């Protein structure tokens, strides 16, 4: 039991670390696409790690099944949401930072 | 530890509220309101009020955020700058706040078991509800049986809200075929995932509806969750195709039928010789009668809440589509 507790604690801490790094990236990264990227990628791994840590805390009964369902649901919905967000921004014509720079250079060369 | 978590959550709650006051961008305000609701749901969860937390998360953070976003799509994103001076309102707010704080001095101490709120009817509910109603989830016994009349009032309030929104906005049906299918045609991924999870959401709503006697949940939460499934369908596939699945007329019928079912249970128990909503009369065995009554009225609640929420969403969404076409 002790080993399970230690493993679960490590998983929870790692999940917390990834969630926090995603939040920091959300504030620090330069443009919209990198921000979505930082939030969504770390979110997926944080969900897996935190849910894994919680799974080890259950006594492998119905709660385990419920947690597994929540994990499945989050792993389906959260990347989909990020994808929809980025795609809508793309269709709406939002340029990434690199593209904005290239446009600026072209304008400077022409002008 | 629980106290520490409570303090942290309350501090976050206060910060969110302050940010909401000072923001002018209404879209961010709506998002912050969602966060506010989730924080309060966490606090309720920490206080072991699972049913309330469930309601707050599904109604406060879920459906009201969607409805407020629908309103924003009609009205616009920016708050208008006020031309009036804010001196008088500030004085009024300060005085009211001071009076409220003065009022709390007379409040009984927080969490004391001798408080009037814990002495009045709560001991009876806690000690007798298993014998009188026989449900493991005490919240459902109180909500549906002891306080059945109040809950009937709540359902009527939801029904009245739907009627109010419908009579103000109305649901516009797109008659002509020229109106293009709205919805997100380009988003193939969204289509696949939505088709995958919408049945699961409806299944979960049914679980919450019929498992409410034994665990957290009940008609209110189930109705909102089922409505959320159809709202997701509308957002991804467009209003026109949702009207084919659930027509507004059908929803109007459903909303009234839910209230009617609830009230009819009350009248039927009067007909059987009891008082209004006295479930003991519904069957030979009082406990079985309570079970029947609670299941039927929770179903009525679920149907009305589902239909009312979805009609309100339809009303907003059809207005948005109409203004987009023009």
Characterise the protein shown here.
The complex is a heterodimer of chains A (111) and B (326). Chain A is mostly helical and 111 residues long. In chain A, 87% of the residues lie in helices and 0% in strands. Chain A has one domain (2-110). Chain A has helices at residues 2-28, 32-57, 62-91, 97-110. The model of chain A has no long low-confidence stretch (mean pLDDT 89). With 326 residues, chain B is mainly alpha-helical. Chain B has helices at residues 2-22, 26-46, 50-75, 87-104, 116-119, 122-132, 138-146, 148-168, 188-211, 219-237, 239-245, 248-271, 286-325. In chain B, α6 (122-132) crosses α7, α9 runs antiparallel to α10 and α10 (219-237) crosses α11. Chain B is globular, with a radius of gyration of 23 Å. The A-B interface holds A 73, 76-77, 80, 83-84, 87, 91 and B 184, 186-187, 189-190, 193, 196-197, 200.
The helix content of chain B, as a percent range, equals: over 70%
Beta-strand proportion of chain A: under 5%
Q: From the alpha-carbon coordinates, what is the Rg of chain B to the nearest angstrom?
A: 23 Å
The helix/strand order of chain B is HHHHHHHHHHHHH
What's the story with the biggest beta sheet of chain A? none
Total of helices of chain B: 13
Oligomeric form of this entry?
Answer: heterodimer
Helix percent of chain A reads over 70%
Q: Give the integer mean of the pLDDT values of chain A.
A: 89
